[in-house]
Specification:
Number of helices: 7
Helix content: 40-55%
Shape: globular
Number of domains: 1
Number of strands: 6
Distance between the termini: 61 Å
């Protein structure tokens, strides 16, 4: 049995169904969203949230996230879209690839916050329920990057080096055909899956409410992305102090996660789970702070009153 000395890239990135061209990148993005919604819904309902709440929030968060992710990508790669004779409509071609996670997180969080206010749900409770699902969604999205041949690192001679078609726009100039690259899409998939396991295991031993699961997500993803960006081949033209903007943003994300965990641990040091407190669904173990609302059990946080749990 011959073991491949490299990882081949797919020959196709889409299929044609009649008049429609279906891009694999878009399919994996949609699959990631579906998995994240399903997992988050299950987690939030188990915590006392009303069934269907996550879908209501997703209807706001997903469009906001897509717009933000695309906007960030276009802004940080201006020469790909703005040049003499350029087709400016391509700035909207999300299905061809180019959704920046930092823009998606920022705008998606804004959409989720608006939706949480509308349905009467504490935003941090939703974010904690979302944390592992978000990492799963990002892992699915990276498979789409693989089909687009757009996420790889510096050249490598390792046996799992990634083949990139030299005719691809992302292929670096000046390198010989046959050069292999670090498969960053694969590294990030594995890192994200590890992050899911860490969050789920940590929740068994620690109280990760009031935004602490969100903070752990930010730390895990920010740390991994900082490392990946350090050897990623990316045509972004934005640098600060000699560092790529994505690398700096990832570091800021990780630091923000640490700060969030520390601040929320100090603001809400009380035990959140009381196994003797039944909920309306008849389950025990739901945080007492989360059983105040008559319809959904995760009402928006009010100053100081949320500390009564």
């Amino acid at each position: 049995m011959n073991v491949p000395a490299s990882i081949p890239s797919p020959d196709i990135s889409s299929i044609q169904l009649g008049p429609f061209q279906i891009h694999f990148y878009a399919l994996f993005i949609l699959a990631g969203i579906a998995v994240a919604v399903a997992l988050t819904s299950r987690r939030l309902t188990a915590r006392g949230g009303a069934p269907g709440t996550v879908l209501d929030i997703a209807l706001w968060a997903v469009p906001f996230g897509i717009i933000g992710g695309r906007l960030y990508h276009v802004i940080t790669h201006p020469t790909d879209y703005f040049y003499a004779g350029a087709d400016l409509w391509k700035t909207l071609y999300v299905w061809e690839g180019g959704l920046a996670i930092f823009g998606a997180i920022l705008f998606g969080s804004l959409g989720a916050y608006i939706a949480c206010r509308r349905v009467g749900l504490r935003f941090l409770s939703f974010a904690d329920a979302l944390a592992p699902g978000m990492l799963l969604a990002q892992a699915f999205g990276r498979v789409g990057n693989y089909f687009n041949q757009e996420l790889f690192g510096t050249p490598t001679t390792l046996p799992w080096g990634l083949q990139i078609d030299p005719t691809q726009p992302a292929f670096p100039t000046g390198l010989p055909e046959g050069t292999l690259f670090h498969p960053l899409f694969l590294y990030e998939i594995l890192w994200n899956l590890l992050g899911v396991a860490i969050i789920l295991l940590a929740e068994r031993h620690f109280s990760l409410r009031w935004g602490r699961a969100l903070g752990l997500y930010l730390v895990i993803y920010g740390m991994g992305r900082t490392w990946f960006e350090s050897f990623r081949l990316d045509p972004t033209e934005f640098e600060l102090g000699g560092f790529k903007i994505n690398m700096l943003n990832a570091t800021v994300v990780a630091i923000a996660g640490i700060i969030l965990i520390i601040v929320q641990s100090r603001r809400h040091p009380e035990p959140e789970i009381d196994p003797k407190v039944p909920t309306r669904q008849g389950h025990a173990g739901i945080p007492a702070a989360d059983v105040r609302a008559p319809a959904d059990a995760l009402a928006p946080e009010a100053p100081e009153r949320g500390r009564q749990g």
